[in-house]
Amino acid sequence: MPRDLSSVRLSRLNNLVLAFYSTPRMSKREIITRLEYSSDRTFERDLAYLRDEYAVDISYNRNTSQYVFYGRGKFLVSTALTEREVTSMAAGLKMAAHFLPHLEDACTELWGKLKGVLPEDIPEKGEQLALSTVVALPVSFMDSAVFETLFNAIQEKKTVRLRYCSPYGDGAPREHEICPWGMYFRAHAWYLWAWSCSKNSPMTLRIGRISSIVAYGTPPYVEPPENFDVGDYASSAWYGCTGEGIHDVSLKIEPPLAAVVAETTWHPTQKIEENEDGSIILSATVPNLGDVARWVMASAPYAKALEPTELKTQLYELGTSIVNSHS
């Protein structure tokens, strides 16, 4: 065991590493103030101790005058979890098992390990919340090996060759070489945002439709756009079709559905205008009109399109098709 490690100093070292986990870059003054060090010298001794005895990787950046945390080395961090933190973890593990079914056993095992190191009453309350919260949203099937390969390729920045079968067009499987950028869940399925090496443009693929996959190093990996955020890209869709907003849509929603629709953020660009009769005007800028048309059809007879004309035309054609198929 490392020498000269009193309980007071161990607590101080533990708090220092925990502080770096929450804020990986800090100036000396920030650290001294945040952890209430009695002197600069005490902090410097603690830092040297962590580096020498535990190989904790903390470097000093002279350009920014900050200490930068890269890893805890051999130091085992001790932390006391609050009841709310344990409760949120229990609910989160249950949701993870729902949206990633292939990780259900791992989530169960992890929760079992956590229960073994926590006071008995705290995990029990977390389990009660987990049992009372049910996610009824359906999740489409996908191959866990495909998901894991894509996840690793994103982390390692590797090009991927895959076979993809779309239900649209002729339905024939096609080979793609892609540089995966990120994965996201939307509209009951997992999707991949990637760069297509053959089309020289971004593309979106539904992961459940990938039948085979292999990761390798060529052609060179194409980096995602600057200020890349897969969350922003995923939320750009009204339903499933993502991309740049190019269509300004305006919808009128009648009661009683108007109050229900107003409770939800359907798109990050949406604006809602309330009318005296209880109806609302919902407007947004979306990448795909087909998504909105299907949403309006599902919300009939309480929703109707005001703009653009192309959206109203699509709805007319969908409605005509439904009438003909039921006549």
From TrEMBL:
Any coiled-coil regions, as ranges: none
Occurrences of domain WCX (ranges): 247-318
Domain of life, per lineage: Bacteria
Record-linked InterPro entries: CBASS_pafABC_assoc_protein, WCX_dom, WYL_dom
Pfam families: WCX (PF25583), WYL (PF13280)
Domain WYL: 146-213
Name this protein carries in UniProt: Transcriptional regulator protein-like protein
Native source species: Aminobacterium colombiense (strain DSM 12261 / ALA-1)
Classification lineage: Bacteria, Thermotogati, Synergistota, Synergistia, Synergistales
